[in-house]
C-alpha cells in the first residue's frame, strides 16, 4: 500500500533520530475519512494523537486544502511525504502545521513535544528517469498540450511546431504522459483517440515545475520603475503597443480586477534597452519589475487582454505562497481554466 510505503519508513527514521515512538492506530480506514492515518507519538510519559496526511509529492497548489484541513480537524495534523520542497516547509511551519519527510527532516510541535530537524540529506523526486518530460523542452510541450488538448491527436510534426520543441522528442513525451497516468486511450466515434486524464492535477504539477525548471531560464533580469507614478500607473502601458505581455500578478490584476500587484511581471521578445526606455525602468536586482522571454508559440496562443495566456497566469499565481496570489489564481481557474 502506497501510504504504508511512505509512512512506516518515515516513522522509523523519526524514531532513530529522536527516540520518539510512533504507533500507527489506523491507516486508510473509513473510520477516519478525513485522514490517511492516525498515529500516536510517545516521548517519555507524554503521548499525543495525530491525524496524518500522506503525500507522495507535495505541490504548492495543495496548500489551501492543507490549511483548510488543519482548521477543520479536532486533532493536530502532520504531513508525511517522500520529499517536501524547502519553501513549502517554511510555509507549513509559518502556519504551525507539522511535517515529516522519509529522510527524517521534520517539524513536529504539540503541547509537550517540539522537534525540528533540517540537516538530513533529502533528494527531490525524480519525475522522469527515461525522458525529459519535466525538463524545459518537456515543459513547453506540456504547456501546448494543456492549451489545446486536440494536439494529442495531431501529427508529431504539428505538435513540435506548436510547442516549439524538437520533433524527435514528441513520441517520448506522449509515452511518458501515458506512463504517469495523464493520457489515456479512448474512442471518438470509431477512431482511437488520446485524452488527457487528471488535467487539473497535471496543471498544478506543471505550475510547480514551471517555477522551478523553466521560469528561471526565461528570466532576463529585474528592474524598478524610475518614478513612483510610473509604478502606480503601470497599466497605462498597453502591452500590444510596446510588444509586451503582462504576467503573474499583473496578469491576475487585469484578468480578474481583484489583485493590486506588488511584483510587475513582463514577458517580451523586445530589446531590453528599448523596453527600459518605453517603460522607464532601470536595472535593480531587488527591483519590483521582472522581465522574461516568452516560451510559447505567440502566433498560436495569443490573447486579447495584453496578458500572457490565462493558464500561465494561473500557474504563476497558484505556485506562489502569497495568499492573495492563490486567491486570484482560484478566480482565474473558475473563469478561464477548465
Structure description:
The protein is an alpha+beta fold. Helix content is 40%, strand content 23%. It is built from 13 helices and 14 strands. The strands form three sheets. Strands 1-2-3-4-5-6-7 form a seven-stranded mixed sheet, sandwiched between helices. It has a five-stranded mixed sheet with strand order 11-12-14-10-13. α4 crosses α7 (199-218). 35% of the residues are buried. The model has no long low-confidence stretch (mean pLDDT 87).
User: What radius of gyration results from the CA coordinates?
Assistant: 23 Å
Q: What's the mean pLDDT score?
A: 87
- Count every beta strand, where a strand is a DSSP E run of 2 or more residues: 14
Structural class: alpha+beta
Instruction: Give the spatial strand order of the biggest sheet.
Output: 1-2-3-4-5-6-7
Distance between the termini: 32 Å
Shape descriptor reads: globular
Helix content: 25-40%
Please name the defining characteristics of this protein:
single chain; 338 residues; alpha+beta; 7-stranded mixed β-sheet; 5-stranded mixed β-sheet; 13 helices; 23% strand
Brief synopsis:
By secondary structure, this protein is of the alpha+beta class. The protein has helices at 2-18, 63-72, 86-94, 136-147, 156-163, 170-179, 199-218, 228-232, 239-242, 248-256, 272-279, 310-318, 323-335, and strands spanning 21-27, 37-43, 46-57, 76-83, 98-101, 106-109, 114-117, 183-188, 191-196, 219-225, 245-247, 264-267, 281-283, 289-292. Strands 1-2-3-4-5-6-7 form a 7-stranded mixed β-sheet, sandwiched between helices. Strands 11-12-14-10-13 form a 5-stranded mixed β-sheet. A two-stranded antiparallel ribbon has the order 8-9.
Amino acid at each position: 500500500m502506497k501510504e504504508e510505503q511512505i509512512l512506516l519508513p518515515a516513522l522509523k527514521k523519526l524514531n532513530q533520530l529522536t527516540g520518539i515512538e510512533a504507533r500507527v492506530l489506523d491507516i486508510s480506514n473509513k473510520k477516519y475519512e478525513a485522514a490517511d492515518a492516525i498515529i500516536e507519538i510517545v516521548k517519555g510519559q507524554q503521548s499525543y494523537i495525530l491525524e496524518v496526511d500522506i503525500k507522495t509529492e507535495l505541490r504548492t497548489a495543495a496548500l489551501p486544502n492543507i490549511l483548510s484541513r488543519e482548521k477543520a480537524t479536532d486533532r493536530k495534523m502532520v504531513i508525511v511525504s517522500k520529499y517536501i520542497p524547502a519553501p513549502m516547509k517554511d510555509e507549513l511551519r509559518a502556519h504551525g502545521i507539522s511535517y515529516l519527510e522519509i529522510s527524517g527532516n521534520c517539524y513536529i510541535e504539540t503541547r509537550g513535544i517540539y522537534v525540528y530537524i533540517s540537516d538530513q540529506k533529502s533528494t527531490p523526486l525524480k519525475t522522469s528517469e527515461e525522458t525529459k518530460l519535466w525538463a524545459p523542452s518537456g515543459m513547453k510541450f506540456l504547456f501546448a498540450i494543456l492549451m489545446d488538448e486536440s494536439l494529442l491527436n495531431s501529427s508529431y510534426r504539428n505538435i513540435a511546431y506548436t510547442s516549439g520543441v524538437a520533433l524527435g522528442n514528441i513520441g517520448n513525451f506522449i509515452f511518458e504522459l501515458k506512463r504517469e497516468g495523464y493520457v489515456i486511450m479512448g474512442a471518438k466515434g470509431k477512431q482511437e483517440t488520446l485524452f488527457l486524464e487528471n488535467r487539473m492535477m497535471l496543471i498544478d504539477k506543471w505550475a510547480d515545475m514551471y517555477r522551478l525548471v523553466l521560469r528561471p531560464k526565461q528570466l532576463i533580469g529585474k528592474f524598478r520603475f524610475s518614478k513612483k507614478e510610473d509604478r502606480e500607473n503601470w497599466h497605462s502601458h498597453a502591452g500590444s503597443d510596446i510588444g509586451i505581455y503582462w504576467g503573474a500578478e499583473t496578469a491576475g490584476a487585469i484578468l480578474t480586477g481583484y489583485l493590486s500587484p506588488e511584483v510587475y511581471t513582463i514577458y517580451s521578445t523586445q530589446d531590453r534597452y528599448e523596453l527600459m526606455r518605453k517603460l522607464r525602468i532601470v536595472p535593480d536586482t531587488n527591483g519590483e519589475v521582472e522581465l522574461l522571454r516568452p516560451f510559447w508559440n505567440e502566433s498560436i496562443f495569443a490573447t486579447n487582454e495584453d496578458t500572457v495566456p490565462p493558464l500561465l497566469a494561473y500557474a504563476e499565481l497558484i505556485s506562489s505562497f502569497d495568499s492573495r496570489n492563490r486567491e486570484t489564481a482560484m478566480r482565474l481557474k473558475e473563469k478561464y481554466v477548465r
